């Protein structure tokens, strides 16, 4: 763009930006999405309550614990660090960039795991009929699949909840 505007080579543009304008080209640094203070406090309170109830002397129960997480995987990849490089003043630091960017198509992955690894997985492919995770989908698809898997692994036992 600059080289066309002034009819000079790209290497000459880089030289001018570095030496005369005192700029450097940097990559953005990836930062994870952050939790609010309320979310952090809620997680801490839950973890402390759980440890108080099942911590000391209940190591076997802790190993039986199954937890889950979900994430949207977007079909379109965000720009690579190299693609997102920018010229900045030498004294300036790198810009921060969130890792995720949104694209039109996406799939939700729901994963349940315990201390031994992955227990069960499910996927939600958004459609016009269902574009978000609903409690019905979660219970009927994800949790029922998880319970079937746990029954198979642990033998026939009653599950509450």
TrEMBL record:
<dbReference type="GO" id="GO:0003676">
    <property type="term" value="F:nucleic acid binding"/>
</dbReference>
<dbReference type="InterPro" id="IPR036397">
    <property type="entry name" value="RNaseH_sf"/>
</dbReference>
<dbReference type="InterPro" id="IPR052709">
    <property type="entry name" value="Transposase-MT_Hybrid"/>
</dbReference>
<dbReference type="Pfam" id="PF01359">
    <property type="entry name" value="Transposase_1"/>
</dbReference>
<dbReference type="InterPro" id="IPR001888">
    <property type="entry name" value="Transposase_1"/>
</dbReference>
<protein>
    <recommendedName>
        <fullName>Transposase Tc1-like domain-containing protein</fullName>
    </recommendedName>
</protein>
């Amino acid at each position: 763009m600059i080289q066309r505007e002034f009819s000079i080579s790209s290497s000459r543009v880089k030289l001018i930006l570095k030496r005369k304008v005192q700029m450097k080209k940097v990559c953005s640094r990836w930062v994870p999405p952050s939790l609010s203070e309320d979310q952090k406090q809620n997680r801490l309170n839950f973890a402390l309550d759980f440890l108080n109830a099942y911590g000391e002397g209940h190591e076997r129960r802790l190993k039986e614990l199954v937890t889950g997480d979900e994430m949207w995987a977007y079909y379109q990849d965000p720009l690579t660090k190299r693609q997102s490089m920018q010229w900045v003043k030498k004294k300036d630091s790198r810009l921060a960039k969130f890792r995720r960017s949104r694209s039109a198509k996406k799939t939700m992955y729901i994963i349940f795991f315990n201390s031994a690894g992955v227990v069960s997985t499910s996927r939600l492919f958004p459609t016009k009929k269902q574009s978000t995770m609903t409690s019905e989908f979660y219970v009927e698809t994800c949790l029922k699949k998880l319970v079937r898997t746990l029954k198979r692994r642990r033998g026939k036992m009653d599950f509450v909840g």
